[in-house]
Amino acid sequence: MSRQSNNPPSGIATRAIHFGYDPQKEHGALVPPLHLTSTFTFESVEAGGEIFAGEREGFIYSRTGNPTNDLLERRIANLEGAEGAIANASGMGAISSLLWTFLEPGDEIITDLTLYGCTFSLFNHGFTRFGITVTHIDLTDPANLEAAISSKTKFVYFETPANPNMRLVDIAAMVRIAHGAGARVIVDNTYATPVLTRPIERGADFVVHSATKYLGGHGDLLAGIIAGRMEDMDAVRSVGLKDMTGSVISPFNSMLILRGLKTLELRMERHCANAQKIAEMLDAHPGVETVYYPGLATFSQKELAQCQMAAPGGMIAFEARGGFAGGARMMNRLQLVQRAVSLGDAETLIQHPAGMTHATYSPEEREAHGISDGLIRISAGLENIDDILFDLEQALASG
Ligand code: 4LM
Fold first, then answer.
1. Annotation marks residue 213 as catalytic
2. How does pLDDT run across 357-395, given as a tens digit for each residue?
3. 377 is catalytic
4. Number of structural domains found in the chain
5. pLDDT in tens, 23-71
6. pTM surpassing 0.90?
7. Which of 92, 169, 199, 268 could be cross-linked to 158 through a Cys-Cys bond (beta carbons 3.0 to 4.6 Å apart)?
8. Which of 99, 111, 112, 116 to mutate to test the pocket of ligand 1 (most atoms within 8 A of CB)?
9. CA-CA distance, 2 to 73, in Å (whole number)?
10. Final residue of a domain: which of 241, 261, 281?
């Protein structure tokens, strides 16, 4: 790699590998050390008091900060183009820590029709018990937000692409309308990752992630991320995370995510290439009714995908002929593709949202929120594409 010495590294893979770590400050260790400690010692009572009071730099206890977690947070903030980030024990922990910090009785959250099942449950079965209004509208049309937003709206919250049906939401349009009405925008960027979409660069106030998925990338941990402005991150760390959820990440998992990030861009390239081929095969297959993938010419929001995503992503949704029964028969015949929830792993995964990840919706809610009973979701893995296609085709062929 040749570059001028006064030109800082700017590529996303380079930053995912190097940002925020100087080996010379850690005995020359190429790989950052893992600080597996719950608490930190103070050189004196006075020094401890000063660190607690924020008058002196230093770590106190790993619920409020840990050097390994801190490196992960700074690195992900850098990749997202955010001032700061906070790592959490899970994606649900991140969403809860963020929202519990700011929501008050009487506030409204406006959100899209489609959300991951447990986020839907947190909003509709959790927050609504505490005097918070959750309004679901179709955010794929910005005019709907324009019509619904009011002075009570504190947050506009959405996933893009949405789990599981791949609806896209125009981040810049949401930001323009929300900010005009004094509301702030939270984007769940789990499906896209900062390699494909950087919501904060499009004006969003917060990004959340299930880092369990592509960021970790190996299916061996649970984690979540919140990214945004530093003053908001300070508030979340000292209120929502520290006192309300306590959903702090283990430094061990931070280390695994730091390792995963080194290959994030490479992995996304392969996830996207494999997903494109899978989507094209399904689209042409007589055993398949409809395929939802932003890289297909038939995708209804293809233009938005091209403007907002660097590539169409690694997730696909489809409906098999014969509805749920047809889909289930096909899924049960798979040999290589694994029947499992979660996504973003090396292994290609397949699951049935209505019965699994989105079983938190009632059947009526699923119908109203665009999650059909026959929908099947694939997370394209990193295997050789011919092997994935062979397995899917043999499972579809038997009818
Ligand atoms: C799944 N998803 O879909 P933790 N945001 C999005 C998600 O997809 C998820 C979370 C948050 C799945 C889990 C079983 C868009 C999770 C929640 O699972 O708490 O890390 O993230 O298969």
1. yes
2. 999 999 999 999 989 999 999 999 999 999 999 999 999
3. no
4. 2
5. 999 999 999 999 999 999 999 999 999 999 999 999 999 999 999 999 9
6. yes
7. 169
8. 116
9. 28
10. 261
